[in-house]
Structures are given as C-alpha cells and as structure tokens.
C-alpha cells in the first residue's frame, strides 16, 4: 500500500534529555523533550540517574509526541533513533525502545549518528531559516563535542578538526562551577557576559596545530586565575563576575573563530553552519554575523529549539535515510563512541 505522506518518529536519548518528534515529509509536527533537573544538584550529568530517568520518561514522551502531531502509531513509516555517540546506559534505553516499537509495528528501523543529526538539523523545514547548499563547513559545539566537519552531501562528511581533550561546552560549565554558577553554566555565563567587559581579563589561547582544539589548558588557567585573585581578595568573584564571564566567553569564542577562519582558508569553503548546544550562545552567533559582513561568509544558525539535544534532528536524518532505503536491522546495538 502506498503512503500518501511519510511520517517518521525520531527518538533521542544520548545524554540526559528524553526526546521524541514526529516529522511529515521533512516538516516537524511535534518535538517533545523531557529534561532531567536532578543533575543540577551534582553539577553535571550522572549516567546512572540519567538512564533511570529515560526509562521513566520515554513512554510518555513518545505518546505526547504522537498526540501533539495528531498521528497514530499505525501511520508511522519508520522509527529513527540515536545509536551513538553518548552515554551507554542512556543510549540503550532509546535503542531498545525504538527496536521494540519498529518490530511491533513491522516498520523499518533507522539508526542515526547524533553528531550527524546536529549538522543535518539545518535541513528541518522552518519558516525564517534558510538551508545551506553543499559543500559547507559545519562546526558542532556542545558539552561533549567540538568538531569542524566538511560536508559535501547529506551523508558525505569528513571531520577536519576536533578537540584533543575537553569539549567547548565543558569549558563553559567547569568555568561556571569555579565561579559558583549553577549547572549548566553556559547560559548564565552568556547572560552575564553581555553585562561585562570582554577585555577586562586576559586568558592565553592554547596553541594547537592544524584545525584541532584544546580546552583543558584554558580551564586550568582559569582555575589558577580564580585561586590567585581570591587569595588576595575573597570578594573578587562577586565584585567582578560579569567581567570574568565576559572575558572567558570572549576567549572561547576567539578560539572557535580562529579555527573556523583557518578552515575556510584551507578548504576555500565560506558557507558555515553551526550546531549543538553551544550554538545557542549569543556571542558565537554575533561573531558569525560579523564574519558574514566582514569576511563575506554565508552563515547558518539553527533555531534555538534545534540547538540542544532534540528528536527533531533525529527525525530529519531518519527521513533522509528513509528516502534512500537506508535501514538497519534488529541486530543493531547502541555504541557510546560512534565516529561521524
């Protein structure tokens, strides 16, 4: 029987957000996310708690996604899910649920690479947002990843630069923890940075060859900076918080932009798309807009709802793979370390 419309259910469970979305022929009908606030008390994601919460959330989240979309499970053409990379326990919940649902409905199962989904989120149809033409450079920046990817086609991607230690999102969160900010600290640093002087304090940028990144040295430098200044003035952080946040953000954005400029120079590709949780940062968005005007780049910034982990990005990859008849078997397994 021919389907008039192609409905894809996307499931995302790579870290601490349980998400489900329904897409129809490239257009998102629903995008539901259940956040796990319990991790705030620990200053970071606790893997065991995350997987337990996914088990509690996944059925109601999928139910809500179908309900909001006005679609019954029998109308689904396929189930797409995040196979990796991510936290193994979290991935297992989403993978097991997706496999069971696809088997029960006797419909195709589609595995999705989480990092690929952050890039292809730009192809979700949303009013007011343009889609990049191939080839383009994608910079995926999040709490767990920092990469520059040369994208020649939907499924022809090559990582040309990545972090050799910590991810950029971790640099934001660990710096925020040193300043006494809550988790995740990135949004709070971004908010305070707008009120401070970005050149109040100087932090040395790490020197890394090629297009690779490093943030562990910067985190250590910030730690020593805080220790040194609070030793002489216990109120140093309180008195200078906005300036410290602005200076940290200015340094991190400088590192990202320096590598992007180098990537554009080497590849001769000046179409730039960003993705991942840190792409919500107002500073990096502003820096890209400046580069667009000053350097002639064409930049693509995702809608805020598609920056953090979400199932809409999984669904769009599922749809593109469905069109290619690119399905996976019930024998597939979750993989914590999955290469792009």
Structure notes:
By secondary structure, the chain is α/β, with parallel strands linked by helices. The chain has two domains: 7-121 and 308-323, 2-Layer Sandwich (Nucleotidyltransferase, domain 5), CATH 3.30.420.40; 131-301, 2-Layer Sandwich (Nucleotidyltransferase, domain 5). Helices cover 42% and strands 19% of the residues. The chain contains nine helices and ten strands. The strands form two sheets. It has a five-stranded mixed beta sheet with strand order 3-2-1-4-5, with helices on both faces. It has a five-stranded mixed beta sheet with strand order 8-7-6-9-10, with helices on both faces. β1 (7-12) and β2 (18-24) form a beta hairpin. α4 (168-178) packs parallel to α6 and α4 (168-178) packs antiparallel against α7 (236-267). The chain is globular. The two termini are 35 Å apart.
CATH class of the largest domain: Alpha Beta
What form results from the Cα inertia axes? globular
The value of Rg in angstroms is 21 Å
**Beta-strand share of residues:** 15-25%
**How many strand units?**
10
What is the number of domains?
2
Helix content: 40-55%
Structural class call reads: alpha/beta
CATH superfamily of the largest domain: ATPase, nucleotide binding domain
Count the helices. How many?
9
């Amino acid at each position: 029987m021919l389907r008039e419309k192609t409905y894809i259910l996307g499931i995302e469970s790579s870290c601490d957000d349980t998400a489900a979305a329904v897409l129809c022929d490239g257009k998102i009908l629903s995008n539901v996310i259940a956040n796990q606030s319990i991790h705030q008390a620990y200053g970071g994601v606790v893997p065991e708690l995350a997987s337990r919460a996914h088990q509690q959330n996944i059925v109601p989240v999928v139910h809500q996604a179908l309900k909001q979309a006005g679609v019954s499970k029998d109308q689904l053409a396929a189930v797409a899910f995040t196979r990796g990379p991510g936290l193994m326990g979290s991935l297992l919940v989403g993978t097991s649920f997706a496999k069971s649902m696809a088997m029960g409905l006797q419909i195709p199962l589609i595995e999705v690479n989480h990092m690929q989904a952050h890039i292809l989120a730009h192809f979700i149809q949303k009013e007011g947002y343009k889609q990049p033409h191939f080839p383009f450079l994608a910079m995926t920046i999040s709490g767990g990843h920092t990469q520059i990817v040369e994208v020649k086609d939907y499924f022809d991607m090559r990582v040309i630069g990545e972090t050799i230690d910590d991810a950029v999102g971790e640099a934001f969160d660990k710096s925020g923890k040193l300043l006494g900010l809550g988790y995740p600290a990135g949004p709070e640093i971004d908010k305070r940075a707008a009120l401070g002087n970005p050149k109040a304090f100087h932090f040395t940028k790490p020197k890394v060859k090629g297009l690779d990144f490093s943030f562990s040295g910067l985190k250590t430098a910030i730690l020593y900076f805080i220790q040194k200044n609070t030793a002489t003035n216990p109120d140093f952080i309180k008195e200078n918080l906005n300036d410290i946040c602005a200076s940290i953000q200015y340094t991190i954005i400088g590192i990202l932009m320096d590598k992007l400029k180098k990537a554009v120079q080497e590849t001769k590709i000046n179409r730039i798309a960003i993705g991942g949780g840190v792409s919500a940062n107002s500073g990096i968005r502003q820096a890209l807009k400046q580069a667009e005007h000053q350097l002639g780049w064409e930049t693509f910034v995702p809608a805020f709802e598609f920056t953090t982990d979400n199932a809409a990005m999984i669904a769009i990859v599922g749809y593109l793979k469905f069109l290619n008849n690119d399905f996976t078997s019930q024998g597939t397994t979750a993989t914590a370390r999955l290469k792009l």
